[in-house]
Amino acid sequence: MWRAFQSQGGVANIERLDRALKQRRELAQLHGKADYATYALTRRMAGNLKAVTDFLDRVRDAVVELQKRGLAELRAEKAAVLGKPMDQVRVQPSHAAALCGRQLV
């Protein structure tokens, strides 16, 4: 029953989505834009893809620095509680930090 409910629409929905994507692409091209994302961004505060990418890079960099400090504090506290030197204590960074591709501690 669950599978039947999840499958409703099937091919018809795929065709509708395909038609919607084609119409978005056509709309963007009519406005002289390479793709719908670029068209949509020009109508919003962000303005363009580079502005969005630059903003997200700045946010990521700020978060990574905060996380480094937080993990260093956590590591120091863990070392104190366990009575071990810092070089023998590890803390596991979050999955988000791993996605950034950076070694934090």
Question: Could you describe the 3D structure shown?
Answer:
The protein has 105 residues and is an all-alpha fold. It folds into two domains: 9-47, no CATH class; 49-105. The protein has helices at 2-7, 10-30, 36-42, 49-82, 95-100. Helix 2 crosses helix 3 (36-42). The chain is elongated and about 65 Å long. The model has no long low-confidence stretch (mean pLDDT 83).
**What shape does the CA trace take?**
elongated
Q: Average pLDDT across residues?
A: 83
Strand fraction equals: under 5%
Secondary structural class: mainly alpha
Please state the CA-atom Rg, rounded to the nearest Å.
24 Å
Share in helix: over 70%
Number of strand elements: 0
Helix-strand pattern: HHHHH
Detail the poorly predicted runs. none
Number of domains: 2
Describe the biggest sheet? Answer: none
How far do the termini sit from each other? 49 Å
- Total number of helices: 5
Map the helices and strands.
Layout: H1 2-7, H2 10-30, H3 36-42, H4 49-82, H5 95-100
Helix pairs in contact: 2-3
Offer a quick outline of the entry.
This protein is mainly alpha-helical and 105 residues long.
Labels describing this entry:
5 helices; 105 residues; 70% helix; mainly alpha; single chain; 0% strand; elongated
